[in-house]
Amino acid sequence: TLTSTRLNFAGIANPSNALLSDDGGVGDPEISPYFGDSTNLDAVKVLVGCQSLVAVEGKVRGDPMEKAAFKSLGWTIAKDVAKPRKNNLSLMGSDRFVLRIVKRFHFNPVL
Q1: H or E stretch including 61?
Q2: H helices within 50-109, ranges in order?
Q3: Which residues are CB-neighbours of 8 under 8 A, at least 6 positions away?
Q4: Number of structural domains, the chain?
Q5: Are the beta carbons of 82 and 75 closer than 8 angstroms?
Q6: Does residue 106 form part of some domain?
Q7: How do residues 83-96 score in pLDDT, each as one tens digit?
Q8: Would 24 be classed as within a structural domain?
Q9: CA-based diameter of the chain, in Å?
Q10: How far, in Å, CA of 92 to CA of 76, rounded?
Q11: What residue ranges of the chain have pLDDT lower than 70?
Q12: Using an 8 Å Cβ cutoff, are 43 and 49 in contact?
């Protein structure tokens, strides 16, 4: 049971870094801290583009886990567009880089 809505984003687990166990199976991947570099850019695009967050009166609302990841990755959301914050633009190489949210599945805490 979670007793707090304060979540900290630790980083991105890259499956290619998964550890092989002695029996030939694959163990848990190592978590790489995210420092705003482009090494995990595809994972960042998925995390900020495939989420249920909405902006209401200037505040981001939705699933606490998605909010924590979104905030830690340095992105903003407005209407149906997610884009990097001004200080995070060097990662994208352009101030015109945005992700358009095509379909939204709203967060349901009951599930």
Answers
A1: strand 59-61
A2: 64-73, 89-92
A3: 68, 72
A4: 1
A5: yes
A6: no
A7: 887 766 555 555 56
A8: no
A9: 53
A10: 14
A11: 1-5, 13-39, 87-96, 106-111
A12: no
6 in a structural domain: no
CA 98 and chain centroid, separation: 14
Output the pTM of the full model.
0.64
For CA atoms 28, 29, 32, 36, the dihedral sign is negative
In-domain check, residue 5: no
Count Cα neighbours of 44 within 13 Å in the Cβ-side half-sphere: 26
- As given in the structure block, the two tokens for residue 48 are 């900020």
DSSP class per residue in 5-49 = S------EEEEEEEEEPTTS-EEEEEEEPP-S-STTHHHHHHHHH
Distance, C-alpha 37 to centroid of its chain? 14
Domain housing 85: 38-100
